[in-house]
Amino acid sequence: MNDIKNKLTQEQYRITQEHGTEPAFSGAYWNKKDTGNYSCICCNTKLFSSHTKYDSNSGWPAFYQPLSDKVIGSSEDKSLFMERTEVHCLNCKAHLGHVFNDGPKPTGLRYCINSASLSFNNIEKK
After folding, report:
1. SS3 state at 15
2. Three-class SS of residue 20?
3. Which residues does residue 63 pair with via DSSP β-bridges, in sequence order?
4. Whose CB has fewer CB within 10 Å in the chain, the N or C terminal residue?
5. Is 92 a residue of the active site?
6. Measured distance CA(41)–CA(39) in Å, rounded
7. What are the tens digits of pLDDT across the range 9-40?
8. Catalytic residue of the set 40, 42, 89, 112
9. Cis peptide leading into residue 23 (ω within 30°)
10. Alpha helices in the chain (DSSP H)
11. pLDDT (tens digit per residue) in 67-111
């Protein structure tokens, strides 16, 4: 656990290990338009593609599907007097954000993800 605490900023640790959230419109990736992949900040597992990212007007990066069904796990979250579905990295269990059923086609899902739980890898246009 100390290794991960030393690797992350305080904010990244709070969000990924203590199930925190960042304020809306404050994260590095909520409005990012570059082409690339978003990975778990803790273990570098590739989670989302910029091709499935869209503007949900929520203030957090939103995706309508992960890169694979084998990279995202979910659990029930009843904190803050709400019932939501929390999503986490299936590889290292880092908290990422939540998924909602109000997203665009083709999935109808909105993965609302904290920027602090992600790293971004640019894909150069050729």
Report:
1. helix
2. coil
3. 53, 111
4. C
5. no
6. 6
7. 999 999 999 999 999 999 999 999 999 999 99
8. 112
9. no
10. 2-7, 10-18
11. 999 999 997 876 666 677 999 999 999 999 999 999 999 999 999
